[in-house]
Write a structure and sequence with these properties.
With 281 residues, the protein is an alpha/beta fold. Helices cover 43% and strands 14% of the residues. It folds into two domains: 146 residues, 3-Layer(aba) Sandwich (Rossmann fold); 121 residues, Nitrogenase molybdenum iron protein domain (Rossmann fold, 3-Layer(aba) Sandwich). It is built from twelve helices and ten strands. The strands form two sheets. Strands 3-2-1-4-5 form a five-stranded parallel sheet. Strand 6 and strand 7 form a beta hairpin. Helix 5 runs antiparallel to helix 6 and helix 6 runs parallel beside helix 12. The chain is elongated and about 65 Å long. The N and C termini lie far apart (72 Å).
């Protein structure tokens, strides 16, 4: 019944639009279905073209004034009322709507970004779709420049890193995940080598690997809760006070702020290696 009502509502909106034609315009109206695309669009200076965003979008501040169109479950009626010329997605987060979008004549574009080197390419393609290719080219040039700068300032050795994304159950960023790619790029050695993106792990695995750095990327009120886990007091990262709680949005959203995340990781890794070298003397 709910789906039937939704279809009726969409049909009503389509009828209303067709019966009240407006003068043809060449402007662009973009709906961003995921936070990472919203961040990219505004970073590229294309925020003026954004008419709708997902309920999860919270950055930058100026984006919050846009119409919300839902989260994983989308409000199709609202999307249609905004009359978008482009809907953008990442990693098939809304793939289940692809057929419906096609039937409604909506231009839905999904970008696959599972590695960091895919991000500047996505920015270029996105900017071209909006008719501003120079914006994407500028971003790509700046991205490659910053990556090069980071690559020449990595730690002298690779510290062993445990990157936790949730605690109940314990989940970590795997080596093949986007975050795993970030750890490698920043000069770290991920102790979680699973091919799955975010495997569930156990304490025995962490205790055996004995990481130099522990990174927590979820809301955590007290880092001492990590230190109090059974047996974890023996870990190098705990003994040397190398536990960091970082903003998860910088890591789970493939976007321009990933550069900030990379620099944070690089600095943390360099500090861990430097401390290890001093203790060895």
């Amino acid at each position: 019944m709910k789906q039937f009502k939704q279809v009726i509502s969409v049909i009503f909106i389509l009828t209303l639009i067709l019966s009240n034609p407006i003068q043809a315009r060449d402007d662009v109206r973009v709906i961003s279905l995921v936070p990472s695309q919203t961040e990219m669009l505004f970073h590229l200076g294309l925020g003026e073209y954004v008419t709708g965003i997902s309920d999860y979008c919270n950055y930058p501040e100026e984006s919050r004034s846009r119409q919300k169109v839902g989260a994983l479950e989308l409000n199709i009626e609202r999307i249609m009322s905004l009359r978008p010329t482009l809907l953008v997605d990442v990693n098939n987060m809304h793939k289940k709507y692809a057929l419906l979008f096609s039937q409604l004549g909506l231009n839905y574009v999904n970008f696959t970004v599972t590695r960091m080197d895919q991000l500047p390419k996505m920015a270029e393609e996105l900017a071209k779709l909006i008719g501003k290719p120079e914006k994407g080219a500028e971003f790509a040039d700046e991205w490659h420049k910053k990556i090069s700068e980071i690559s020449v300032s990595l730690p002298s050795e690779k510290p062993k890193v445990y990157f936790e994304i949730w605690d109940t159950p314990m989940q970590a960023a795997g080596a093949q995940s986007y975050i795993g790619d970030m750890i490698r790029t920043a000069g770290g050695d991920n102790i979680v080598t699973d091919i799955s993106e975010f495997p569930v792990v156990n304490s025995e695995t962490i205790l055996h690997a004995d990481p130099d750095v522990i990174i927590i990327a979820y809301p955590l009120t007290d880092k001492t809760s990590i230190e109090k886990r059974p047996g974890w007091q023996k870990l190098r990262a705990v003994r040397n006070k190398q536990i960091y709680a970082l903003d998860q949005d910088l890591f789970i959203r493939p976007g321009p702020r990933n550069l900030d995340a990379l620099m944070q990781l690089r600095d943390i890794f360099r500090k861990a290696v430097s401390g290890r070298e001093k203790r060895a003397k």
